């Protein structure tokens, strides 16, 4: 595909530590966290003005799903905005908890395993042509995803078990995957989920749902993760030969690879050959380089992605992790963990190191260890704070998210009850005029404008609020109103006779 739509869903871990007493259980804390969301949207499943989705299912892992993005930096900005939105909610929840007599600290972690061993996800969504051959997904994409952890894993301090001693692994998620490709999400947790919900024209497109990834803190790692996956998909879509790396046992392989930080663990390819993760990734990288040399770069970050991909593989191959220890999560984290281990003369089985692993993912900017490292110049970034803050409020401009954001903001300004999802737009008073946008690349829609026109004369009545005005609203920034009505509400109460 020339242009592709991307989206990431992040589930967060939540812990409340009481100052004197035990903290509240996570599901209760999650309800506190989502109180402003429910007040704002009367539901714990809402689309917010930046066109992304906030969602609290039963249980305790609040989720943020980015709006549809067709630009990788927009995608990373929207995902990072999600962290700040959750952080904003966490600060308010902490205050509310305190008011109710539950003093203590709330920890919101963008990671994939809690201290009790539960796993939660970071799901990627890629728009792909319906015609993409399923077989190529299992022969090329699956081995790519199984081995991708060596370039994009978040790193993990694994405690000792019956089978092995405590050690540092590439991935948090690898030990929690149970199947290669399947339509189930929770029970068997597959690497690629085939549940067919394209949120697009099902005759043309599919939404590829990848649920194997680790949540990343590092923006550069995210660029590599999404960018390299996009490149592999492009080669699959173009039908070019990419080599056959179909794995004999993808789930055995993903664990085996994760647990061997030297990158030398070999996995068996169907047919008997044995290859290491670095060899498989190098094979795919070389094909991608050739593909780009022949077809040209399709966006401005391709060169950077290829360069970082190569350098990361070199870091694993040579054992010289300093090649990427500011850009790739597992290497940034490992350097920190190793320094602490050395300073205290302890091994990976020491609880302190497990704590550091967790604290790396703390989204709180003034407490999280990743953020601390970034401030100290030990972790690279790609985006300015302004861009991330803007992404908390504004939808991406180049996909239908722009229409959704505009629809939502306008309907709210008029106090008109409405419902939206990825595809639908409806004013509750006009149920017969519900509108669908199946093409995710649409950025304007006359039908929606006409529907919104029925709310009143927008040109003279709506005034866009400045960021300062929106900040002054006393609600989380992501939930602030974008417009105010300059005239009286057109739908005022009916006259009393
Ligand atoms: N046509 C599309 N192609 C690719 N991604 C899409 C498309 N439409 C929406 N997306 C993205 O897919 C993600 C959908 O997230 P959502 O959590 O709603 O889906 P889900 O995981 O299938 O549902 P649930 O979490 O309820 O099981 C979002 O990040 C969104 O931006
Ligand atoms: Mg989801």
UniProtKB/TrEMBL annotation:
<comment type="pathway">
    <text>Protein degradation; proteasomal Pup-dependent pathway.</text>
</comment>
<feature type="binding site">
    <location>
        <position position="66"/>
    </location>
    <ligand>
        <name>ATP</name>
    </ligand>
</feature>
<comment type="similarity">
    <text>Belongs to the Pup ligase/Pup deamidase family. Pup-conjugating enzyme subfamily.</text>
</comment>
<dbReference type="InterPro" id="IPR004347">
    <property type="entry name" value="Pup_ligase/deamidase"/>
</dbReference>
<comment type="pathway">
    <text>Protein modification; protein pupylation.</text>
</comment>
<feature type="binding site">
    <location>
        <position position="63"/>
    </location>
    <ligand>
        <name>Mg(2+)</name>
    </ligand>
</feature>
<dbReference type="GO" id="GO:0016879">
    <property type="term" value="F:ligase activity, forming carbon-nitrogen bonds"/>
</dbReference>
<feature type="binding site">
    <location>
        <position position="53"/>
    </location>
    <ligand>
        <name>ATP</name>
    </ligand>
</feature>
<feature type="active site" description="Proton acceptor">
    <location>
        <position position="57"/>
    </location>
</feature>
<feature type="binding site">
    <location>
        <position position="422"/>
    </location>
    <ligand>
        <name>ATP</name>
    </ligand>
</feature>
<keyword id="KW-0460">Magnesium</keyword>
<dbReference type="Pfam" id="PF03136">
    <property type="entry name" value="Pup_ligase"/>
</dbReference>
<feature type="binding site">
    <location>
        <position position="55"/>
    </location>
    <ligand>
        <name>Mg(2+)</name>
    </ligand>
</feature>
<keyword id="KW-0067">ATP-binding</keyword>
<dbReference type="InterPro" id="IPR022279">
    <property type="entry name" value="Pup_ligase"/>
</dbReference>
<dbReference type="GO" id="GO:0019941">
    <property type="term" value="P:modification-dependent protein catabolic process"/>
</dbReference>
<dbReference type="GO" id="GO:0070490">
    <property type="term" value="P:protein pupylation"/>
</dbReference>
<dbReference type="GO" id="GO:0005524">
    <property type="term" value="F:ATP binding"/>
</dbReference>
<dbReference type="GO" id="GO:0019787">
    <property type="term" value="F:ubiquitin-like protein transferase activity"/>
</dbReference>
<keyword id="KW-0547">Nucleotide-binding</keyword>
<keyword id="KW-0436">Ligase</keyword>
<feature type="binding site">
    <location>
        <position position="9"/>
    </location>
    <ligand>
        <name>Mg(2+)</name>
    </ligand>
</feature>
<comment type="function">
    <text>Catalyzes the covalent attachment of the prokaryotic ubiquitin-like protein modifier Pup to the proteasomal substrate proteins, thereby targeting them for proteasomal degradation. This tagging system is termed pupylation. The ligation reaction involves the side-chain carboxylate of the C-terminal glutamate of Pup and the side-chain amino group of a substrate lysine.</text>
</comment>
<keyword id="KW-0479">Metal-binding</keyword>
<protein>
    <recommendedName>
        <fullName>Pup--protein ligase</fullName>
        <ecNumber>6.3.1.19</ecNumber>
    </recommendedName>
</protein>
<dbReference type="GO" id="GO:0010498">
    <property type="term" value="P:proteasomal protein catabolic process"/>
</dbReference>
<keyword id="KW-0833">Ubl conjugation pathway</keyword>
<dbReference type="GO" id="GO:0000287">
    <property type="term" value="F:magnesium ion binding"/>
</dbReference>
């Amino acid at each position: 595909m020339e242009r592709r739509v991307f989206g990431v869903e992040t589930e967060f871990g939540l812990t409340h530590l009481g100052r004197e007493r035990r903290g509240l259980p996570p599901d209760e804390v999650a309800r506190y966290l989502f109180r402003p969301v429910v007040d704002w949207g009367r539901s714990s499943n809402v689309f917010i003005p930046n066109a992304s989705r906030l969602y609290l299912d039963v249980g305790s892992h609040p989720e943020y799903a980015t709006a549809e993005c067709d630009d990788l930096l927009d995608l990373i900005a929207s995902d990072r905005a999600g962290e700040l939105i959750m952080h904003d909610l966490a600060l308010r929840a902490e205050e509310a908890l305190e008011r109710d007599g539950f003093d203590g600290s709330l920890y919101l972690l963008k990671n994939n395993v809690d201290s009790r061993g539960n796993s939660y996800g970071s799901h990627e969504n890629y728009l792909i042509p319906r015609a993409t051959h399923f077989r190529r997904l299992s022969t090329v994409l699956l081995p790519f995803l199984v081995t991708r952890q060596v370039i994009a894993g978040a790193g993990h301090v694994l405690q000792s078990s019956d089978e092995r001693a405590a050690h540092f692994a590439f991935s948090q998620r690898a030990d929690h995957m149970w199947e290669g490709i399947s339509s189930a999400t929770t029970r068997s947790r597959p690497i690629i989920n085939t549940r067919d919900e394209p949120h697009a024209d099902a005759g043309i497109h599919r939404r590829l749902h990848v649920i194997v990834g680790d949540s990343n803190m590092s923006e550069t790692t995210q660029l590599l993760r999404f960018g390299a996956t996009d490149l592999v998909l492009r080669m699959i879509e173009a039908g070019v030969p990419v080599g056959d790396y179909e794995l004999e046992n993808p789930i055995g392989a993903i664990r085996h690879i994760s647990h061997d930080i030297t990158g030398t663990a070999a996995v068996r390819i169907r047919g008997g050959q044995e290859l290491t993760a670095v060899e498989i990734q190098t094979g795919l990288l070389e094909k991608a380089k050739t593909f780009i040399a022949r077809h040209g770069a399709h966006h401005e970050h391709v060169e950077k992605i290829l360069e970082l991909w190569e350098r990361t593989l070199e870091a694993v191959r040579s054992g010289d992790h300093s090649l990427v220890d500011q850009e790739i999560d597992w290497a940034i984290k490992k350097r920190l963990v190793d320094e602490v281990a050395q300073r205290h003369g302890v091994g990976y089985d020491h609880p302190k190191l497990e704590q550091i692993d967790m604290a790396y993912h703390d989204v709180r900017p003034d407490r999280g260890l990743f953020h601390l490292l970034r401030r100290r110049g030990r972790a690279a970034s790609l985006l300015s704070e302004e861009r991330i803050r803007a992404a908390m409020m504004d939808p991406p401009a180049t996909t239908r998210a722009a229409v959704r954001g505009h629809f939502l903001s306008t309907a709210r300004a008029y106090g008109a009850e409405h419902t939206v999802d990825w595809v639908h737009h409806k004013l509750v008073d006009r149920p017969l005029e519900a509108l669908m946008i199946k093409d995710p690349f649409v950025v304007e829609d006359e039908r929606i404008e006409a529907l919104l026109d029925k709310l009143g004369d927008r040109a003279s009545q709506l005034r866009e609020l400045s960021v300062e005005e929106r900040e002054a609203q006393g609600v989380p920034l992501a939930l602030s109103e974008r417009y105010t009505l300059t005239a009286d509400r057109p739908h005022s109460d009916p006259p009393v006779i």
